[in-house]
């Protein structure tokens, strides 16, 4: 059974390109080029091509601005690296150094809502829908579908709290001044953290990998942070790090403390390697353990909770304290990153950059709106609930609605709506 | 300050020692004169010790002067022989000697070398407050050398890192300096100008070359076997391979790991591409390009090797080690060792 399409409805692609063109015509002059832009490589994704236009370099900001105005890219990137000749092929560029960057993408973080906002589009036509895709498309009969990431407030909040956790690592452990840490909302599902200080530019991939492992807690050995069994005159005793210890030691202690305060009995039982009886023992003694954290040695306070149990609690604590970053982005010294104030082709939102201390107050779904003028009537194929600005829209199923421009363009970019007359 | 002759003899690479030697204004043709024969002989034994024991000795009995002068002469010899194995081995042997001396020396000397020679950002810690730590080194400088050490205690994640500084004990700091010394000496050898040597010195060089060749013969490098033995794949490769065969999704890093591994154990490009054909997003042109790129046929011409075990753990490719994996740092090392075990 095929659904008859109303003739007046159109694929919005041309419209998106037109709006992106308008955006760049009006805003290109406000786009600041990154520091030492002459030494960086720029990359662009175009609407009608699937490959990235790479190895571009600009000797003056106006050349860059004229360029984006003339080509209207769907996405704009620049290298985190500096090169002697950024426009040459990778092997011939002459690497000078690379900023330290981190990517926190909610795609990489397990959030409970992810199953709720599954979304698909048909590769053969402009059909789309929520949930699991059908075996064949009801409109074109095709069987190839693409799963699309939906913009979700919960996912974005999770990504933000991961970013805040990372900033804590960068300031307290790595000693970077907060004002030197720049945070970017990517315009879609996550945040980039960017540090340009001179001393980090020469770090090689192995060194960057060590930094990655540090924030992920990969390869962490608890005994090297003070959790161990010692033999005293009175017998075996477990000792461990203190809440106020710096670095991972303190993180481990605070993480275990958090578990004791917040975990239900059921959650304790679900910790890998802790059996039901031990979980109950911990649960019933948690007040006593917590109290001994203020005056004494919590790690050795309860008989029956030995080193093995503590190690399991610490493993969970490490997982909780670690930051979910995309490992490849930080290690790859030739990586391209999105450029602030350019648009994201999958949302029509703009990339925005804020100092690290303002991250907490940032509302990406309000602050990153690029198209704030006008409204538009669109035919929505299907849409989960979503927020743009202060309003919440949807869910919609095959209906015509009037939306503010930013919301309409968001749905167009997701291929979730068609243009009406 | 490092000003005594003893310091120069112990650490002949420091700026003051180099300047001291310069100030003597010696010419290479003077070296064959009898008054320098002790120096030249000591230079030769330095290299000999490096080849045989892997560490040069701290030789102070015959006087500091000979120690100081014999180091640059040894560098001239090694540079003249121009053999990569010898260059690495000599630099390492000198670095080991330095490490042993640093451990016994006073803290100020370590700090002085780290700051004046290598421009490291380091401070010594008052013992009573920071026990058991002696030094705090900027993590940037720490990461210059620590990633090359494979023991878990060297991982940054297992270090006390406060406000950008890694807290270290003396033996750890000595090890880090000595690694920098090794690189420094390798660099000195590499950039050392070629000098004409007279017949007497060339005879000594011939003798060293003979010893070097004996040594190299003994460590005949294990040739890579011609046939690919899939039973010898490490667990990580086995898992990616199984994913591939069963049509499951493999991450970019996973594909790179498998491709570079199989190319390195001798699989041909065409055979590899065939292997990727069942994947749902298979694209022949793109796959060929990528495989050839990794094989070094295209692009920069670099032939890639698979990532180390460490890196595979970081990217969650490592499915967890098996018994053989302990003490192994690279999937290709696993493969070679396993083949030896299978053959036995």
CATH architecture of the largest domain in chain A: Alpha-Beta Complex
The percentage helix of chain B is 55-70%
What Rg of chain B, in angstroms, do the CA atoms define? 25 Å
Would you report the number of β strands of chain B? 4
Mean pLDDT of chain A: 92
Summarize the amount of helix of chain A as a percent range: 25-40%
The number of distinct structural domains of chain A comes to: 2
What is the number of E strands of chain A?
A: 20
- Overall outline of chain B: globular
Oligomerization: heterodimer
Mean pLDDT across all amino acids of chain B: 88
Give the spatial strand order of the biggest sheet of chain A: 2-1-3-14
Largest interface: A-B, 34 and 32 residues
Describe this structure in words.
The complex is a heterodimer of chains A (421) and B (344). With 421 residues, chain A is an alpha+beta fold. Chain A has 2 domains: 13-110 and 150-211 and 327-419, Alpha-Beta Complex (DNA primase, PRIM domain), CATH 3.90.920.10; 222-321, Helicase, Ruva Protein, domain 3. Chain A has helices spanning 13-27, 61-71, 153-173, 205-216, 247-262, 265-270, 276-292, 307-321, 327-331, 364-367, 405-413, and strands spanning 42-46, 52-56, 73-79, 81-83, 95-98, 100-105, 119-122, 128-130, 145-147, 181-185, 190-195, 228-232, 235-239, 336-338, 352-355, 375-383, 386-388, 391-393, 396-404, 417-419. The longest helix of chain A has 21 residues, at 153-173. Chain A is globular. The model of chain A has no long low-confidence stretch (mean pLDDT 92). Chain B is mainly alpha-helical and 344 residues long. Chain B folds into 2 domains: 5-218, Transcription Elongation Factor S-II, Chain A, CATH 1.20.930; 230-343, no CATH class. Chain B contains 16 helices and 4 strands. Chain B has helices spanning 5-10, 15-24, 37-53, 64-81, 84-104, 107-116, 127-130, 139-145, 170-191, 199-218, 235-245, 252-264, 269-276, 284-295, 309-314, 331-343; strands spanning 122-124, 135-138, 161-162, 165-168. In chain B, strand 3 and strand 4 form a beta hairpin. Chain B is globular. The N and C termini of chain B lie far apart (58 Å). The model of chain B is unreliable at 221-225 (pLDDT under 50). The chains are: A alpha+beta (421), B mainly alpha (344). At the A-B interface, helix 4, helix 5 and helix 9 of A face helix 8, strand 3 and helix 15 of B.
């Amino acid at each position: 059974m095929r659904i008859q399409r109303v003739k007046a409805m159109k694929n919005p692609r041309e419209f998106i390109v037109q709006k992106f063109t308008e955006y760049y015509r009006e805003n290109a002059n406000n786009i600041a080029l990154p520091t030492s832009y002459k030494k960086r490589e720029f990359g662009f994704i175009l609407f009608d091509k699937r490959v990235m236009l790479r190895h571009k370099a600009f000797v003056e900001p106006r050349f860059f601005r004229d360029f984006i105005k003339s080509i209207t890219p769907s996405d704009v990137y620049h290298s985190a690296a500096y090169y002697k000749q950024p426009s040459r092929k990778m092997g011939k560029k002459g690497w000078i150094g690379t900023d330290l960057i981190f990517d926190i993408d909610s795609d990489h973080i397990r959030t409970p809502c992810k199953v709720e906002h599954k979304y698909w589009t048909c590769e053969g036509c402009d059909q789309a829908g929520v949930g699991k895709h059908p075996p064949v498309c009801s409109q074109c009969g095709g069987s190839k579908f693409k799963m699309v990431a939906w913009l979700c407030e919960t996912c974005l909040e999770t990504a933000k709290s991961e970013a805040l956790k990372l900033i804590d690592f960068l300031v307290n452990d790595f000693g970077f001044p907060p004002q030197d840490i720049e945070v970017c909302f990517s315009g879609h599902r996550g945040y980039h953290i960017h540090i340009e200080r001179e001393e980090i530019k020469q770090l090689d991939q192995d060194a960057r990998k060590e930094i990655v492992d540090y924030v992920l807690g990969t390869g962490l050995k608890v005994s090297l942070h003070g959790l161990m069994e010692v033999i005293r005159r009175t017998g075996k005793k477990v000792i461990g790090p203190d809440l106020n210890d710096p670095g991972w030691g303190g993180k481990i202690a605070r993480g275990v403390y958090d578990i004791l305060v917040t975990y239900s009995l059921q959650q304790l039982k679900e910790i890998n390697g802790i059996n039901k009886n031990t979980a109950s023992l911990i649960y019933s003694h948690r007040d006593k353990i917590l109290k001994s954290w203020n005056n004494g040695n919590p790690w050795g306070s309860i008989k029956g909770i030995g080193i093995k149990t503590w190690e399991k609690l610490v493993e969970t604590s490490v997982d909780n304290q670690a930051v979910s970053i995309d490992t490849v982005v930080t290690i790859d010294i030739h990586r391209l990153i999105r450029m602030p104030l350019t648009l994201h082709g999958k949302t029509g939102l703009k990339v925005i950059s804020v100092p690290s201390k303002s991250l907490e107050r940032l509302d990406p779904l309000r602050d990153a709106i690029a198209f704030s003028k006008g409204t538009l009537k669109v035919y929505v194929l299907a849409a989960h609930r979503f927020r743009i600005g202060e309003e919440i829209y949807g869910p919609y199923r095959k209906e015509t609605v009037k939306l503010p421009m930013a919301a309409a363009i968001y749905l167009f970019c997701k291929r979730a709506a068609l243009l009406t007359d | 300050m490092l000003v005594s002759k003893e310091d120069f003899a112990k650490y002949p690479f420091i700026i003051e020692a180099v300047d001291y030697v310069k100030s003597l204004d010696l010419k290479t043709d003077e070296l064959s004169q009898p008054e320098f024969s002790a120096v030249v002989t000591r230079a030769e034994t330095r290299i000999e010790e490096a080849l045989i024991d892997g560490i040069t000795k701290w030789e102070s009995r015959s006087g500091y002067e000979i120690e100081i002068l014999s180091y640059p002469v040894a560098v001239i010899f090694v540079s003249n022989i121009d053999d990569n194995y010898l260059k690495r081995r000599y630099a390492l042997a000198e670095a080991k000697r330095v490490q042993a001396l640093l451990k016994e020396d006073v803290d100020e000397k370590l700090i002085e070398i780290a700051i004046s020679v290598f421009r490291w950002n380091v401070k010594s810690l008052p013992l009573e407050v920071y026990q058991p730590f002696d030094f705090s080194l900027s993590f940037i400088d720490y990461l210059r050398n620590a990633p090359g050490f494979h023991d878990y205690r060297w991982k940054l994640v297992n270090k006390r890192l406060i406000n950008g500084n890694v807290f270290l004990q003396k033996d750890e700091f000595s090890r880090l300096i000595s690694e920098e010394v090794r690189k420094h000496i390798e660099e000195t050898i590499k950039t050392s100008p070629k000098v004409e040597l007279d017949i007497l010195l060339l005879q000594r060089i011939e003798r060293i070359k003979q010893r070097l060749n004996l040594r190299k013969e003994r460590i005949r490098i294990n040739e890579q076997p011609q046939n690919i033995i899939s039973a010898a794949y490490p667990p990580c490769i086995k898992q990616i391979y199984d994913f591939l065969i069963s049509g499951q999704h493999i991450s970019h890093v996973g594909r790179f790991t498998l491709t570079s591994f199989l190319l390195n154990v001798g699989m041909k490009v065409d055979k590899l591409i065939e292997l990727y054909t069942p994947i749902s997003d298979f694209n022949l042109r793109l796959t060929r390009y990528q495989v050839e790129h990794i094989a070094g046929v295209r692009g920069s011409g670099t032939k890639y090797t698979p990532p180390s075990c460490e890196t595979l753990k970081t990217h969650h490719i490592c499915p967890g080690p098996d018994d053989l994996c302990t003490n192994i740092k690279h999937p290709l090392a696993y493969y070679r060792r396993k083949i030896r075990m299978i053959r036995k």
